[in-house]
Structures are given as structure tokens and as C-alpha cells.
């Protein structure tokens, strides 16, 4: 066994002992309890159902109905058909926040930007889903 073999073996051993870093991150995080997992899954299901319901409602609407919704709210100047579905998705996420992946969180952040850019503190679209005591 030459010097090169020992160094290669040592390198392999060091890499095997170090792991890929993900194992250490997993060990650093405390394990999720059943109650936490159940709460996370319920939040995901509630968000999924609400997003699906809003998408179905938006798909069923005619262009004139969407324009009328904006006109009645006094926000017709903010209507952008290209970003409307993003705004609706962001509204659903505001009402039903849920844990999500980093990639989805970045997309939601972008969608929320479109929503906040035009609506400040104004509610529209999903207002019918909010109860009288749930406004803030």
C-alpha cells in the first residue's frame, strides 16, 4: 500500500464520516410531533381547498364579471388580466397561510408583491369568505 492509497482511503473515510451536510441539518432540527404534523397537514389541506375553490370560481367567471368586480370596488385602474390569477392566489394564501417549500415561498412572495402593489389595505374577491368578526 503506497502513500497515494493511504491518502485516498483517508479522503474516502473523511467524506463518509462528514456526510453531505443534510444529515447534520436533519439532526439539528427537533423531530416533528404528531400534533405538529397534523396541524401542518391541516393547514396544507385548507390552503389547497381554498386555492382550488378560488381557481374554479375565477375560471367560471366571464371577463366582464371580473371587470365589474373591480369597477364596483373602485379599483378598475388596477385590473391587470395577466397578473389577476397571481393576485387571487396571494389573497388565498393571506387567508389560509400554510408551510411551504422554499421555491413555493419565493413564488408566493412575488404574487404578494403584485397584490400589495395595487391593494394596500383593500379587500376584494374573497371578501365573501371572511366572516363579520374575522376582518382583522
From TrEMBL:
Highest taxon listed in the record's lineage: Eukaryota
Positions of the UniProt region annotated as Disordered: 1-32
Protein's UniProt name: Uncharacterized protein
Species this chain originates from: Triticum aestivum (Wheat)
